[in-house]
């Protein structure tokens, strides 16, 4: 891969994460998440073998589904409350959809079955980036919205993740 293209992808990856982490508007956060997804796709695809192609396709489909759910939840919230601010969420339905979308983006159980395929289809450096850097933006959104999310739903998701992780290894 051309060093200039590689530098552009890495800088877009870091900038998009910073955009998402510093935003207080849902559309700007969604834009950062989408830029993050689009900048990691060529990096996953770099080895150019069938497993990398499959991993890239799966990653794209899962991440865009989660991003569409986040956009849908933020639109429902804006419709209900009249604002696009992340910290002012009032709708229970939109908060539940948002929690499921963030958990899907993070690869938390039970929505984690795509994650091993992505890691197996990429090289070690890319797997490290996917496992660490790609989780920062969704974790920030979870942190910003945790006060509005149902504690029962968050506890249920945490319990399922612990049980699946403990039993599954």
Labels describing this entry:
169 residues, mainly alpha, 78% helix, globular, electron transport, respiratory chain
Provide an overview of this structure:
With 169 residues, the chain is mostly helical. It has one domain (3-163). Helix content is 78%, strand content 0%. It has helices spanning 3-22, 26-45, 50-81, 92-106, 115-120, 124-131, 133-145, 151-168. Helix 1 (3-22) packs parallel to helix 7, helix 3 runs antiparallel to helix 4 (92-106) and helix 4 (92-106) packs antiparallel against helix 7 (133-145).
List the helices and strands and how they pair.
Elements (H helix, E strand, L loop, with lengths): L2 H20 L3 H20 L4 H32 L10 H15 L8 H6 L3 H8 L1 H13 L5 H18 L1
Main location: mitochondrion
Protein name: NADH-ubiquinone oxidoreductase chain 2
Enzyme class: translocase
């Amino acid at each position: 891969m051309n060093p200039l293209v590689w530098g552009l992808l890495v800088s877009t990856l870091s900038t998009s994460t910073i955009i998402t982490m510093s935003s207080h508007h849902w559309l700007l956060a969604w834009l950062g998440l989408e830029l993050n997804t689009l900048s990691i796709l060529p990096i996953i695809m770099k080895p150019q073998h069938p497993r990398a192609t499959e991993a890239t396709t799966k990653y794209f489909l899962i991440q865009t589904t989660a991003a569409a759910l986040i956009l849908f939840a933020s639109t429902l919230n804006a419709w209900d409350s009249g604002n696009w601010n992340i910290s002012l969420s009032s709708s229970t339905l939109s908060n539940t959809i948002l929690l499921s979308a963030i958990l899907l983006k993070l690869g938390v159980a039970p929505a984690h079955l795509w994650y091993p395929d992505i890691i197996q289809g990429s090289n070690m450096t890319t797997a490290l980036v996917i496992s660490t850097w790609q989780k920062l933006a969704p974790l920030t959104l979870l942190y910003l919205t945790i006060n509005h999310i149902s504690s029962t739903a968050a506890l249920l998701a945490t319990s399922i993740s612990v049980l699946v992780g403990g039993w599954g290894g």
